[in-house]
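Hi team,

Filling in the usual template for the complex we talked about on Friday. All components are listed, including any nucleic acid strands or ligand strings, so the model treats them as one assembly.

SUBMITTER: L.P.
PURPOSE: interface mapping
COMPONENTS: two
RESIDUES: 700
SEQUENCES:
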Amino acid sequence: MLWLYLHFPYLLLEHFQQSETASRPMALIGGHPPQVIQLNPEAARAGVTEGQSPQTASALADNLHLIAADLEEQTGVLDQQAIWLYRHAARIILYPPDGILAEAGSLRRLHGGLPGLWRKLQDELDQRRLTARLACGLTPRSARILARSRRGRCTEDAQALRQSLDDLPVAAADLDERTTERLQRMGLHTLGPVLALPDRELARRLGPETALHLQQIEGRAVDPQTDWHPPPYFHRRLDFAEDVEHNSGLLFPLQRALQELEAELCWRQQQTDTLQLEIRHRRRPVTPLQIRSTAPEHRADAFIELARLKLERHSLEAPATGLSLKTRRFLDRHTPQGDDLFGETLQHQEEARQHLLSRLQARLGEDALHHLALNADHRPERAWRATPVGDGCLPSTPVMPRRPLWLLRQPQPLREMPCQWLAGPERISAGWWDGERVQRDYYIARLHSGQTGWLFRDGTGGWFLHGWFG
Amino acid sequence: MSDILDKLIDNAQIWQASRQRQALNPGIESTGFPALDAYLPGGGWPRGAMIECLVATPGIGELRLMLPALQRMTQAGQTVFWIDAPHIPYAPALARADVDIRHLVTIRTQTREDQLWTLENCLRSPVTGLAMIWLDSAKRSDIRRIQLAAEAGDSLCILFRHSRYADQQSPAALRLLLNPGEDSGQLCPDILKRRGGWPVSGLQLAIPAITTRPPEPASNVIRGPWPRTH
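RESULT (copied from the run log):
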């Protein structure tokens, strides 16, 4: 079996960098006492190195942006990298906090050989502005230690791989400190001579764990791996290097997240109509926002437009430190129907319609738009329904009595006696079954102003106006 | 006639009153009332222009005037928007009048800014057949904005306003003042403004009557209204 290991040395820093529009020197600070733990090439060019104190680092590069980071967060970031890697490799094993192992042997043919796969991964990494060190190995452990010590090569030749393993310094072999020191004192500085020692001697002198570890590097002992499986939802978390104070500042990072969502949806051959957006603040509860489109959608452009409208309506209550994009609802894509090659078709029309309705909903709110539908009830106020747009309502063709085109929201007391009675009475008596009883005699009459109204007289003898024949 | 005039006429740079009633061009939507079409330039509602209907009170037949357009558009699958209608467009009555109610969308907005934004977006979309907006504003900039939005699209845009704005100047391509007729089957629109024509007043349109004949007082039916007995 051939394994491929990806080691991400600057994962957390690059995670912060993804929400940046321009590159600038940045460094992560962590640990006790605080020191530089990750830095980008711009910072390195200014002379900043790992292990410096924050004071030294800022003195070296005056425009250096320092971020206090918690390395625990890196695990969550690693998950996000596994998602895209999963599209290229079937078996993926996470090595938190900064490594991913992929089984490469079975995929060589798919990607046109190992060099093809290697190149593809490098391209993906460049696109995502990530730094990763890749290494091949015949065992998971050998791939891992080669990647971490920057000795990875794109080869599947057992001889060559063995050679690079033999040349590896003992200190890079992922052994505990005491064992490394003992080996070095024995004069064993590279892994080759260590692996040449008999197992029994190794176990006796260095302990059975070390012997097992070395056997696993060589592949003589089993090394069980726990496979990672993609979650059934999409979750993308973004952290900002600097607090964002205006809504417009959220759009750039959000666009990146939406592009990833688009890639994910394309890969799944699915689409979605609901996005959950969470804006995180410092010492404040998160602001949840929901972006909905009336029809299932997968394009990032469509979502970013809806998000822009939504964000225009919600001013930020506090500076944002990050945001999360979640999608749980995946819908299957339908094959377009009745679509010919020359544009203007029903499908096209329907798409434009959904696009317009989604835009309006995003700005005005979901309850501002309604379709009208009929309801089988004799009571005038219940003979119609306002249905949310996006729901397909059923056409119905009942035979209807004469009704006004305008219905008043509430019946209003009649202020003058009509001058001409046109029709009536029509008695409507219904609703005794649900406690909202209606017993009215309806008339159509013309008022002195020339208006034609729909009037009723209820059981108490009062006269009300309920509609206009507009 | 002089050569210069002939040339101008050939280049269609002069509008001639005698040529007003031409064949329906694609930018015109028939109102469904031949008596009204005859007075409208091109013979119908102009598309891609603002039409202003001034109404003093609801219930005089202002919607019945729109019904033929509503029927035609919804049956063709075009969407009709009702933006901030003063009352509920009553679905049973619309369905009874052969309007395909699946293509009607009612929108309620909270602010003037939202209202105009919504109208602009509706008019810009190719799916919109007709957008009706009820606006209570005297601000010229608002009206001007609606006119620009209407001209940007290719759909019908009808602005309903109160008749107290009749004296105000308006950039609308067509302005109608709707007056109630003698009975419920009649509507008397005054054309306050039209392109390429003088104002016309005193038109009488027969709109679909509410009742076919007045109820005959039958001797065996006691007719209301009744006075309050207790």
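MY TAKE: The first helix of chain B runs from residue 3 to 10. The two ends of chain B are 83 Å apart (CA to CA).

Thanks, L.
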